[in-house]
Amino acid sequence: MNWKLAAARVSAALALVGGVLGLYDFCVSHSWYNVTGQWTISNTIQSTSYRPYQGLALGYRVFLTQKGTDITGNGEKWSENSVELPSGAHTPITIAGSISGKKITATLALLTSSLRR
Length: 117
Prior knowledge:
With 117 residues, the protein is of the alpha+beta class. It contains one helix and six strands. Strands 1, 2, 3, 4, 5 and 6 form a six-stranded antiparallel sheet that branches.
């Protein structure tokens, strides 16, 4: 076999492997869904030792930003038991998480009043 032909075949094989690895990397680091925008989150407390919170339904309005599979955002507690809170009672929150396929995993952190501006 001619060394030039062998070198061409090796180069083509390496290019093919590189292309497949690049495509795999893109699919792993890219989400087919875009969740950027305004969202409403509902959270109902199902179990607690503090009886007044048992069954409490909290509503949040949040704004999410997605970069690749990473999600960040901020918002505020908007309602309790479907009753809108007065603006002074809105508790600010931050959100950090990720998206994998159709599943979003995120952590919501309440900002305490000492951190408010």
